[in-house]
Every structure is written in C-alpha cells, then in structure tokens.
Predict the 3D structure of the following.
Amino acid sequence: MKLVLCLLLTFLVLANAADKKIHKDFRKQLAGPPSEFGLHNIPSPIFQVQKEDSAFFQTSLALDSERGVGHLSSKLSLLVDSNVTFVIALMSKHQDKLSVSLAQPDGTPVDVEKYATKDYFPVGEERIPAVVYQINDPERGYWVLTLKTKEALSASHASSIANEDQPNVGVLLWNNNNVEIYTHLSTYFTHTDSTIGLVATTTPETEADVNYLGGSIGRQILSAVMDVTLPDGNTVAVPMMDDGMGMDLYAGDGVYVGTFSDAKEVGAYRAKAVLTGVHSSGTEFVRTTQHMINVAERSLGLTGKAEALICSKDKNRLKIHLEVSLTQSGISKGLRKNFRAYSEVWGVDSQGKEVAIAWVGGIVDIESFKKGYAIPLSLDLNWVANAKAQAPFTLRNVYVSDPVTQIPESELAEIKVELTKKFHVHYQKLALNPLEITKEMREGKPPAQLISKRASGKKGLILLHGYCSSDNPWQSTSDLWTNPYYFLNPNASITNEEFAQKVIKFAESQGLDSYALIGHSQGGMVSAHILNYYFTGMDNLDASKRLIQSVGTPYMGSNAAGTAANIGKSFGVACGSNFDLSTDGAVLWLSGITQATREQIYYYTTTYGSGGFFGDYCSLPMNAILEWPNDGTTELDNAILQGGHNMGNTKEWCHVTEMKYPAQFTDRKRNKEMNANAASN
C-alpha cells in the first residue's frame, strides 16, 4: 500500500509539472569538432530503407445473415508464393469467439488446428491474442482464410463488433521465398504544405537486375499501391508509379513512387506500401511495408541572414542569431515554442583559405531580435583558436527542427555571418587555450545552482521503463538496487523530449541533486536525451563511471513500429503510435545525439537462442516482421549505438514478460552488474 501511494503521489507531481518548461539556463550549448560533422546532418530517407519479406492485411468481422442472427464472419484471400513453407499470424481481440478454416487454391480444406501455435503480438506491454499457423509444402496460389463466430452472439453484441470503427482482424503472411519489398519515405520535411510519400522496389533476381536502390529492374509488378491512413482513421489509396514523372526519377527502373499532397491535418499518419508482382517462374507474390509519418504545421523558415555578437554574460562566447521568418502557425504559437538548431561553423586561416572550426547546436527558444525573430546559437571562441581560424565566419548545413516531432522546419546550405566591428578588437584581447577541448567548450557553463550541489546532496539511481508500460519493470528485482527511484508514467506513448522533461521533473520532485539512469527500451533513448540536451543531476556525478545504462533499447528504431501502430489502433490499445521508435523517427532523433553523450552510454542487448523464423523466437508474430535475430521487439542490428559501449548480447532473454524466454529486465546477474557500476554508487 505504501508503494502504491508513493507511485500515485509521483504521478500527480508529474501531471502538475507537465506544462512547465525547463529553464533555458539548464539547456546545454552543444558543440564539437569538425570530425563529428557527419553525425549531425539531417539524414536522408534514402538511407533508411525498410525491408520486409511479409505482408500485413486488415479486415473486419461482418454480420453473417446466412448463418442467422448474432453470427459474424470474414473471408480473406492470401497469395502464397512459396512451395516450401508459409506462415499466417492471425490477430484479433475477438480471437476466442472465432473458428478458423483454411482452403487450398483448389478448394481442398486444411486441418489448421494441427498447425496452430498460440502466441500474442506485443504492443508495449499490451498483449494482442494471436495464433500462428505454419504450413509446409504448400501449393502456390490464393489460399482462402475464413473466420466465423463459433456460436451466435446476442444481436446487440454482434452488431457492436460489426460496427467497430477500426478493422478488428489483422493477418500477417510470411512466405519462405527470399523476396523482399524495400521502401523509404520520400522526405522528412513532412508539413501540411508538403508533398510526402513512399518509394518502393523489390529484391533483384540476378546481379544484373539492380536499380539505384539495390532493388529489381526487371521484375514484373502487377500492382503498386500506397494506402495512407489519416489521423481521423480514414484510408486513401494512392497509386505508385514507375513512369519517370514527379518524384520518380527514371521510368521503367522498377522503383515505384506514391505521393500524397493532401496531408492537411496535423497528426500521425500511417503509410502502407503494397506491391504485387510476378516471379520469373510466373508465380505471383505480394509484400507490404508499414511506415509512420508525423505531419505538422511549419512554424518558421531561415531567412539566410545571421548576425553574431559577443555574449554579455560570457566574453569567451559568440552568440549567433539565425534570423527566421514566422509562418501564421509560428505567429500563433508566439515565443512559447522551442526548437533544435544545428550548424557547422567555418572561418579562414591566415592565408584566407577556408577552415572548418566546429559545429554548434542544442535546444533553444526563439527570441525577438531587432524588428523580427531569431534562433540563437552559441560558439565558445576557443574553438576558433583551436582551429587556428579567424573571421569572416560562414555557417553551413544549417537547420532548425522540432525536438518533439523530430520534423525539420527549415534548412540552408550556407549563411554568411555578419560581425560587429568590436568583435575583432575583442577577440585579440582574449586569453584562449587552443590546445585542449574542454567539457565547457562542448556544453557551455552549467548553472551555478547545479554546481553548488556537486560536493554534497542527495544521490539516487533512477530506473526508467519503456513505451506503453503499466508499471516499472525494474521493481521485479527491487532488492538489487541501491537508492532506487522508480519513474512511472503509465500506459503512455510520448516522445523522447516529452519523456525526458517528465523524468527531470521527477528527479526534482524527489529532491535528487545527483543521479544515474538505467533505462529499459525507450527509457534508454530518454536517458541519452536528458544527458545530451540538459544540465541535470547527472552532471554532478563522476563521468568516469556509468551515467547511463540501458537494456533492449532500439537506438536505431524498430521495423515493427508501423505494423504495431496499425494493430494497436485497430485493437484499441490506448498507447498509440510513437514516431521516435520507428526507424525513421529514431534516425532523426539520433542525429542530435553527440559523440560525447554516446561515450557515456553502456548498453546491453538480448535475443532468442539461435536461427531465423523456424530456429527459435521470442514472439512468433513479431518474427514475421522483425529482422533476425531480435528480442521480440527490438532487432539486434537496430540496438547497436555507434559510439556507445556495447556490453554484449545475451541469448534466451526476451523484451518483456510472457514471451518464450524470461524478460530481459529480470536478469539478476545483469542487474547486479549495472547497479554495481552505476555512477550514483
């Protein structure tokens, strides 16, 4: 009872603090050497290709008048192109009410029950009932899956199911035939005034049959469609074309493009590419992918002007004002919105040759500047001395993005910086150290009220859950942690930035002056976000110890995020979609995470035992979507953090409970190790 009251009080504190922004003095003024430029460019979606060898379909149960009042049924034709094995994963919240039958292309029925394995599809900690059917040595062609209620329901109950506003049956079809669909978003600038869409191709059949995406030029495609699900739940079918028009670069190269210019509503969209084609053998196939797309109103645009002044509070810093023009949406939001800004800074050497100085960035507030508005960036002038550079300065690869949605707002290749005449005189008088790159050069000065608590104060270890968690999973081994504080924001789907703000407020509410973080799943990304952008109690600890440790974190996103969003929406999972956990959202988020932050992250991964779909698994339905190996939610390849400390992979541990193997956060050996190495101890 005491623990429940404590968690309830914590939740109320978080709710009351949710709208309070962290003061700008606690935001880090990020910077780094030119060698890190490549980490922070806006990623191109062409390098974030999603690959799937399965197809996902949704349907709804309808009233079956032929069978009588209270009966429901649904029928789906499934295209099987493998004569080795195919797998059907059937998911429905009404699973217990349904009987399943399956007929071969010639109409011969199959006794499906002898091929059935009961499982579930995980959406966060939600469990969507699933039955997986594995059929060996099948006949190729269209198989018919029929679902019927086992017995009559009440008329009102049957009617309520038939009238559900979302599809209530999901079917994953996997064919063992080495054919994949490759897709990527057409742009990451996804605004209400943008044209957005998908680019798709399929695996090549020969080495000579390769297009610029690594897909097939010659494979015959019978149909290519992009199904766009709008925030209101309606779906629009958009043809995908290979005609060399619009965004399609070349006609007849096997690359299909579907575009959508009617994204007028702000919110979460889901785009599904459906390609139906023909193997060289003449057998037809179908493959699909799922993408999540955030759409927002554009708030501002860079004007191409920048002016720099010596900071009034720190004479060793140059404050660079990036002038911006506000849209009507930006004007309506006033100065309440903050942004993530980034730029490379270039100067010249004594011979007038261009010299790369540093990159600068961080989360910043928009400011009034002269008669307009500006985004402020800060440069420690020791970077200039370190590069043996001098004015004039030029900004390159400049961009401003939304730290919540991850959507880029505006970018420019180059901006000339206007300097005051006083700068040159002032710069000559500075006592700069050009040899050493310091923590202050990388982050700015921490606020005085934080520094004052370094020598003494309350220490703790904050343990974070992941996406859509109903409780804090680390409490299952509560006897192992030293000075633990269990953060809880139950059953939520929030962005890394929103999550981070809540954790920081939680630490304040607990009176913690210094703390380390351990995160499960999304909690690892949130831990990195906090250390990266904000001065907190983490900065009061010894950085030679472990400030951040994580288990099962998809630092590069999950290929199942789009399908999970569709299934969760259909089956009423309240958590909803989370763009930050998709492969596109994660790579946009990761472009802001510095090398210095990555070096403070110690991450652990787990997977099932060995093999692919048939060798072993954590979740059978997820194995039809995820790359192998995986932990039932996070693919091993996507859990690797470039620049972080990889603490190794442990087999036969899964992401959450009720999978084939124990949940990774219950591993007592690993948890003891993490506790012993936490910087808070």
Observations:
- DSSP finds 15 helices and 33 strands in the chain.
- The two ends are 28 Å apart (CA to CA).
- Residues 2-17 form the longest helix (16 residues).
